[in-house]
Structures are given as structure tokens and as C-alpha cells.
């Protein structure tokens, strides 16, 4: 115990009991980081060059588009990164310590190493330390270990290096007392505590970029290089033909601006935003936009057990009465001993459940909840059989006893651990008779207990003893007992978990359970829901403790269940799968899960049972805490990625068509087909609307029959580029035909007008070609996207207005078209539809 002066000296030496926060990036830093993308840098260069050459419209449009994207990215980023703030709030606000030999209540921030802290039921533990006094102490450490049951503490020494959940002689900051009293000496404060170590892990864990972010960056670099090569070729041809270098360069820049899909980032953001709205309705709130698509790439789902795959509610599964194992669904209260066991489990019990508000140990609430389910309410039973005296539960005895008048006789009911009670039983009740217990009967009870344990069940034994008079029962009475039965319980799997796990496996996703719970319990649950096929696929965290990262990479494919793991183990398991080239989703609800949630490609936190820390570290929060919702989210993610690819295909094939038309005109020495304003009109209006609409294509179930795409698979695959090339060639051919018709009939202005009109309308029509990689022209999919139909109608009205309204002609460098020329524009544009659909049919 410290004096006030010693405490002050320790505070100077060790600091205060609080978590230290790392330096955060300023809003300006985050905003400037949005411009690091390669495609954005190319656009900025293009804007600067356009401005210097007098093309201010292009420069302004480009800068406005990329600034809007930067603002969107900054807003998304600022919403994240609050994990340490939540960790701080977990600390107990006040603590009871003995200073100068006197009990004092002080802010937990002032607790220091060497302090003697007192704990009782309901207290939050303010710092880590070793117990010096212990009276039936039980502590809920689920936020740190993931174990659903309160941990019984004692003064017994534990082996060095024991798992966190097995250190029964220590208490940890961030946990809280559910039962009993204790005193402990503080050994670690602030960042030195287990919660502090997790805070350090969070600070040192970098968030993973999603496959879409990686893909778009890679795509941007490749596309930019291709466009620069194209523009350099065109510039060279123009100089070779004797054009002015300034004019040639200005057109090359204008073409680069036309070829680069400036709206792509905005389109992706809009599509993902619509995706988040859809997922919110399906109980998945997305905190980081890019995570929507990232879910579609997931090949490994590492899930916590408690509350995620299970209900986080202890439930009675079986009785063992009269030598028989009885599943809970077959309990018959007309049977005297089964009814007796139910009544005894309610009477020798301190928990209550009032209007759904459960108070007490989870194993005890499970017993009274079974009573409610069978029509036997705890309050009614306790009114009839009033408690006369009691001996409270004690972690040394592992027993609890209560006295009542039952069937007119003074009776003591005892419950406790099977191994302890068996040594105190001399008789056994079978049917209506009580007979001396034989060694054979004892062996049968032990065998049944082992069977329950192998099934991952927690077992309580019940016994009783008639006492001669109405008196206070004593510890000496807890001998010569009569065995009545066993009650086995567990935290059962969620009903949807088995189907969700099966769907994961069908979609090529490997589900893995990572939990702080015991191996037997974890393996039993995993077997029930289909994660575990063989016992050899389960291991404890200690097994991987001394493995190198390379050894762990070789080890992880063999294991489906990890038990008794620490936060460091979770991060290493996630990282090992990532190093093997997998996209990893990690689910969890505790503080102990937060670092792994941040390390994972997609962190998924529980919205109901999850701590604020886990929610802040995650990319997605489940409002129903349901593992099955993750599978729905994967389906949504896969559909969104497919739709984004359709949008990119639409943009690039249209842009390629425009480049081919310009390239053809340059090579054969014809005038330039398009004015810079034509290219800007196409990019901002007739491109953007259908591209967004394609991103909102209705979702289909067939994506879940596909395997997850490889992490290193680029958007620009060989097959994808071939489709873009053939479709762009078709659009380019129609546009070039219109240009040549115009040149022959009325010169360069008419040729440019027809080329502009045909290119715009072709791209609007091409939106329907891009709905699928299969032909859709005669299927019900052709008209199933109202957004695409709307984009087509609006775009057609805009281009027709530009071509037909005289007041717009000077602005857009076009001339008035007569009916015949308008039919040429519409006819050539429409011809793209049957030709490209036929090509899809032939390719299929």
C-alpha cells in the first residue's frame, strides 16, 4: 500500500493511467493525399497545359471534377480513425484505493503502480494487477478475451506465459466485476496494460487498401501510359504533316482529356454510395465506401465465435436424470425427477429475469430462462418454496447451497462442479427410490460429464439432502448428498450460421473461427455449423506463439479453428492469409478484435454487442450481429464490382472509338473530326449518365457461384481488353463513316457535326450493349434498368437539342442538320446494337 507521497513519485516516474494517442493527420493533409493518384496527377498536368495554351474551359472542368473527388475522399476518411477515443472511454472513471492506510475514491487516471485497489460487483477494473485478497470474485473479460463466461478468480499461482483468459490470479483494465469482492496490487497502468497493448497494436496497424483501390490505381497507370503513347503518336503525325507545334500539342492534350475518363472516380463513388444504401437496408452499415466492393473479393472470413456465430446467451441443452441423457426439447415435467431438477435449478440460483432484463451469472440465467420456456417462472417457484438459509457460491468450494421446505421436509439443495460434488455424494435418486451410490454409477456419471464436455457443454451437477430441522445450514452439511442429475448448457450457434457457412464454402470462401474461448467449446460449435470437419483442424493460440511468419504461412491452410488466442495472434493469422495472396474479412465485437479488424482487408464489427472500439476500427458494422448478413454483403460486393467493370467497359470502349476516329483522320491527312468542346460535352454529359446507370444494374444471385477473383487480377484482363477493343472499333467505324459522309457532302463542319452526333448517340446506345457480357437484346434483362433507360432518353434529348437548336450551334461548333442527316446519325449509332450483340453471341 502506498502513501500519497509515494503515489505522487510513482506518477512522476510512470506517468498517468491513461492511453497515449498518436499524432493525427490534419484535414489539409488528408485532402492533399487525395491527389496522390496517378490518373489524377496526369489530369492536373493536362489542366495546366490546357490553361497555358488558352483552353481554359478544359482546364476548369478537369480541376472541378478532381476537386469534387478529393472532397468526397476527405469526408470519408475523417469519419474513421476514432478507435483510441473509444478505448479511453473504456477506462473506469473512478477507483477505490488504499492510500496512507485509508480508503480513498480517486479518478482512475491517478491510479499508479503499487496502489492497492478494492473491487466489488459492478466495478470496472481501472488497471492491470495481481490479486492479494479474493472472495468469490468473478470478472467479465469478454471484451479482452472473447470468452462469453465470467472468469472465476483465485489467489493460486498460474504458470508463466499462460493465455490471458487463464491468468486467474490477475485482473485487467477494461474488464468488470460480476460477482464477489477482491483487492489487488497494480502492476501495469496506461499503455502497459493489456488494453494499452491493444491501443499500441491499433496505432501500429496500417489499414489495408481494398482490391478496388489497388485495381483502379493500377488501371489508371496503365491507361495513362497508353493514352500518352497515343497522343505522342498523334502529335508526331501532326508535326510530320506540317501543323503548328502549338496547335498540334493543344489537340493532343484535348484528346488526352477526352480519352481519360475523368468522371470514373465520381462514378465509382456514386455507385458505391448506392450500394451502401442497399446494404444498410440489409443490416450492414458501411463506414468506408471502398469496403463495399472489397467484400466481393473476400476469400477468407475469420470470425469471432461469441455473439457472431453464436447467440451470446447461455442456453440449457440437455438434462441427465435417472441415468438418461434428455435433450431439452424432450424434457417432460410430468416426470417427477425432471420436474424436481428444474425446480432445484431455479431455487439454488441468485439470478433474475424481469421484463427481459437479466441480472446474474449467465449460467444461472440460463437455468431460469429454461423454466420460463417450460411455463415455470422463477418468481412463482421461489414464492412457493421460500429460501430459509444459504451458503453462497465460493470459488474454492465450487459449490452453492440453499435450504427450503420441499414436500413438507427441510431440504438443502446443492449445485456445483461435477468433480467436486461426486466426492460428496453417498446416494443417488433413481425414479422414486433413493439408493446408495456404487462405483459403477459414479463412473457412468463421470462418463456422461466427459461426453457433455467433448460436445463443448458446460455442466452443473445437482444434489440434495434432507436436514432434521429449520436451521441455518453450514459447510459441514455439504456432505452425504443424494445425486439428482446434471444440467448441460452452452452458448448455441445462431440459427442462420450453418446455412451462411455453407453458402460461404459454395462461393469459394473459407470460413475460420478465431476465439478466446476454450478449444473444446470452439470445436464443438464449429462442428455444428460446418466450419470444422476434423479435430486436427483445431488448435490453441499457444501453438503458433513461437512460429516464424513463414512457418505460420505454411500452417494456416490446415487450421479452421483457433482457440485461446490473443490480439497479437489474431493479427498474425490475418496477416499470414494476406501474405498467401488472400483478401481477408475479419469479424468481431470485442476490444481484443479491434487490431485484427483494422489489419484485415475488410473489418466487420457487431453493431449490437460490439464495443465502440471494434466499430471504429471496422469498415463495416452489422446492425443485426448476424454472420449471415456478411454473406449477403459479399453478394452485394461482387455485384457492385461487376457493375463497376461494366461502367469502365462502357467508358473505355466509347473513348477508344473516338481515338480511332481521330487517329484515322490524322493518318490519312483529313481535318480533325472533333473540336475540344465536343469531347468535353461527351465526357461530362453523354458519358457520365449511362456509366452511372450501368453501375446501378439490378443484382443477380449467379455471382455467388463464382470463385473469389485473385488479388493480383487487374481490371484490364486480356478478355476485357479484347471486348473494349472490338466494341470501340465498331463505334469508331460508325463515327468515321458519318465523318466521311459529312466531308463529302458539305465539308469539314458538316463532317465534324455528323461525327460528333454519331459518337454521342452511339455511346448512348452502347450502354445497352454493356449490360452484360452475354447477348441481352431479346431477354427480359434488356429493359430491367430504369436508370439506363432514363440516361438514354435524357442523353438523346441533349444531343438532339445541340444538333437542332440554332442558338447552341456556335457554342458547340456544329451546324444545323436536316432530317436526312439526322437519320444518318441515328441509323449509324443504332447499328452498333445488333453488330455488338452478334459479336457477343459469336464469342459465347
Summarize the structure.
With 844 residues, this protein is an alpha+beta fold. Helix content is 49%, strand content 17%.
Features of the shown structure:
single chain; 844 residues; alpha+beta; nine-stranded mixed sheet; eight-stranded mixed sheet
Secondary structure layout:
Layout: H1 4-14, H2 27-33, H3 38-52, H4 56-78, H5 83-90, E1 94-99, E2 102-107, E3 116-120, E4 128-140, H6 142-145, E5 151-152, E6 170-171, E7 176-188, H7 194-204, H8 211-240, H9 245-259, H10 264-281, E8 284-286, H11 291-296, E9 300-303, E10 315-321, E11 324-327, H12 336-347, E12 352-354, E13 357-359, H13 362-373, H14 378-384, E14 389-394, E15 399-406, E16 409-416, H15 418-422, E17 425-430, E18 433-436, H16 439-454, E19 458-466, E20 481-490, H17 497-506, E21 510-514, H18 519-529, E22 538-540, H19 541-544, H20 549-555, E23 561-563, H21 567-579, E24 584-588, H22 594-599, E25 602-606, H23 612-617, E26 620-622, H24 627-667, H25 676-695, H26 718-746, H27 748-769, H28 786-804, H29 809-812, H30 819-843
Parallel strand pairs: 9-21, 9-24, 17-20, 21-23, 22-23, 24-25, 25-26
Antiparallel strand pairs: 1-2, 1-3, 3-7, 4-5, 4-6, 4-7, 8-26, 10-11, 10-20, 12-13, 14-15, 15-16, 16-19, 17-18, 19-20
Amino acid at each position: 500500500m502506498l502513501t500519497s507521497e509515494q503515489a505522487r513519485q510513482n506518477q512522476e516516474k510512470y506517468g498517468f493511467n491513461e492511453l497515449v494517442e498518436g499524432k493525427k493527420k490534419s484535414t489539409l493533409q488528408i485532402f492533399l493525399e487525395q491527389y496522390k493518384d496517378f490518373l489524377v496527377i496526369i489530369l492536373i498536368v493536362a489542366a495546366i497545359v490546357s490553361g497555358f495554351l488558352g483552353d481554359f474551359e478544359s482546364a476548369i472542368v478537369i480541376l472541378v471534377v478532381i476537386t469534387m473527388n478529393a472532397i468526397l475522399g476527405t469526408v470519408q476518411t475523417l469519419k474513421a480513425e476514432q478507435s483510441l477515443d473509444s478505448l479511453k472511454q473504456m477506462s473506469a472513471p473512478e477507483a477505490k484505493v488504499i492510500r496512507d492506510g485509508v480508503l480513498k475514491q480517486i479518478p482512475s487516471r491517478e491510479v499508479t503502480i503499487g496502489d492497492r485497489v478494492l473491487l466489488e460487483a459492478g466495478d470496472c477494473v481501472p488497471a492491470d494487477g495481481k490479486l492479494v485478497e479474493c472472495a468469490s470474485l468473478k470478472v467479465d473479460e469478454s471484451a479482452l478475451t472473447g470468452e462469453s463466461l465470467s472468469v472465476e478468480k483465485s489467489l493460486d499461482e498460474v504458470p508463466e506465459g499462460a493465455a490471458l483468459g487463464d491468468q486467474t490470479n490477475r485482473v485487467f483494465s477494461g474488464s468488470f466485476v460480476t460477482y464477489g469482492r477482491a483487492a489487488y496490487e497494480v502492476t501495469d497502468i496506461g499503455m502497459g496494460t493489456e488494453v494499452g497493448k491493444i491501443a499500441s497494436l491499433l496505432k501500429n496497424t496500417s489499414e489495408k487498401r481494398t482490391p478496388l483501390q489497388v485495381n483502379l490505381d493500377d488501371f489508371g497507370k496503365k491507361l495513362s501510359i497508353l493514352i500518352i503513347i497515343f497522343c505522342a503518336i498523334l502529335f508526331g503525325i501532326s508535326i510530320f504533316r506540317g501543323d503548328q507545334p502549338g496547335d498540334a500539342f493543344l489537340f493532343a492534350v484535348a484528346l488526352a482529356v477526352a480519352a481519360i475518363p475523368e468522371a470514373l472516380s465520381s462514378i465509382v463513388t456514386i455507385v458505391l454510395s448506392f450500394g451502401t444504401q442497399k446494404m444498410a437496408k440489409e443490416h450492414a452499415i458501411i463506414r468506408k465506401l471502398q469496403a463495399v466492393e472489397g467484400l466481393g473479393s473476400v476469400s477468407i472470413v475469420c470470425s469471432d465465435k461469441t455473439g457472431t456465430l453464436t447467440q451470446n446467451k447461455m442456453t440449457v441443452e440437455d438434462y441427465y436424470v435417472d441415468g438418461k441423457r434428455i435433450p431439452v426439447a424432450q424434457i417432460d415435467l410430468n416426470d417427477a425427477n425432471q420436474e424436481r431438477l428444474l425446480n432445484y435449478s431455479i431455487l439454488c440460483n441468485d439470478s433474475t429475469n424481469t421484463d427481459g432484463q437479466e441480472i446474474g451469472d449467465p449460467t444461472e440465467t440460463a437455468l431460469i430462462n429454461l423454466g420460463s420456456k417450460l411455463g415455470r417462472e422463477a418468481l412463482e417457484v421461489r414464492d412457493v418454496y421460500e429460501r430459509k438459509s444459504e451458503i453462497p457460491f465460493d470459488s474454492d468450494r465450487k459449490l452453492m447451497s440453499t435450504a427450503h421446505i420441499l414436500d413438507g421436509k427441510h431440504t438443502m439443495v446443492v449445485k456445483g462442479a461435477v468433480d467436486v460434488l461426486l466426492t460428496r455424494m453417498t446416494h443417488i435418486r433413481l425414479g422414486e427410490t433413493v439408493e446408495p451410490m456404487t462405483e459403477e454409477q459414479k463412473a457412468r456419471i463421470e462418463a456422461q460429464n466427459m461426453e457433455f464436455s467433448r460436445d463443448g457443454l458446460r455442466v452443473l451437477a445437482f444434489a440434495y439432502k434432507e436436514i432434521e430441522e429449520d436451521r441455518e445450514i453450514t459447510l459441514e452439511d455439504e456432505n452425504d448428498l443424494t445425486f439428482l442429475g446434471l444440467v448441460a448448457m452452452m452458448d448455441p450457434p445462431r440459427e442462420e450460421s450453418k446455412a451462411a457457412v455453407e453458402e460461404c464454402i459454395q462461393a469459394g470462401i473459407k470460413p475460420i473461427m478465431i476465439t478466446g474461448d476454450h478449444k473444446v467449446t470452439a470445436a464443438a460449435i464449429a462442428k455444428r455449423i460446418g466450419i470444422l470437419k476434423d479435430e486436427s483442424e483445431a488448435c490453441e493460440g499457444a501453438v503458433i506463439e513461437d512460429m516464424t511468419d513463414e512457418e505460420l504461412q505454411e500452417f494456416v491452410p490446415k487450421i479452421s479453428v483457433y482457440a485461446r488466442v490473443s490480439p497479437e495472434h489474431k493479427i498474425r493469422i490475418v496477416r499470414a492469409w494476406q501474405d498467401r495472396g488472400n483478401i481477408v474479412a475479419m469479424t468481431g465485437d470485442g476490444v481484443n478484435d479491434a487490431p485484427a479488424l483494422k489489419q484485415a482487408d475488410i473489418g466487420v464489427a457487431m453493431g449490437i454487442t460490439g464495443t465502440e472500439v471494434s466499430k471504429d476500427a471496422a469498415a463495416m458494422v452489422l446492425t443485426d450481429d448476424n454472420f449471415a448478413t456478411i454473406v449477403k454483403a459479399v453478394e452485394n460486393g461482387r455485384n457492385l464490382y461487376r457493375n463497376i467493370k461494366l461502367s469502365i467497359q462502357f467508358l473505355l470502349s466509347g473513348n477508344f472509338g473516338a481515338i480511332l476516329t481521330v487517329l484515322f483522320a490524322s493518318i490519312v491527312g483529313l481535318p480533325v473530326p472533333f473540336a475540344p468542346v465536343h469531347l468535353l460535352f461527351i465526357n461530362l454529359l453523354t458519358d457520365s449518365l449511362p456509366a452511372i446507370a450501368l453501375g446501378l444494374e439490378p443484382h443477380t444471385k449467379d455471382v455467388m457461384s463464382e470463385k473469389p477473383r485473385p488479388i493480383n487480377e487487374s481490371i484490364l484482363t486480356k478478355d476485357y481488353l479484347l471486348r473494349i477493343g472490338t466494341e470501340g472499333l465498331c463505334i469508331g467505324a460508325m463515327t468515321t463513316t458519318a465523318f466521311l459522309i459529312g466531308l463529302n457532302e458539305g465539308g469539314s463542319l458538316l463532317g465534324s457535326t455528323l461525327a460528333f452526333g454519331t459518337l454521342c448517340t452511339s455511346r448512348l446506345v452502347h450502354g445497352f450493349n454493356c449490360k452484360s457480357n452475354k447477348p441481352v437484346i431479346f431477354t427480359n434483362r434488356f429493359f430491367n434498368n430504369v436508370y439506363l433507360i432514363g440516361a438514354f432518353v435524357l442523353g438523346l434529348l441533349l444531343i438532339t437539342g445541340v444538333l437542332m437548336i440554332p442558338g447552341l450551334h456556335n457554342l458547340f461548333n456544329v451546324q444545323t442538320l436536316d432530317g436526312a442527316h439526322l437519320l444518318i446519325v441515328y441509323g449509324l449509332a443504332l447499328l452498333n446494337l445488333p453488330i455488338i450483340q452478334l459479336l457477343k453471341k459469336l464469342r459465347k
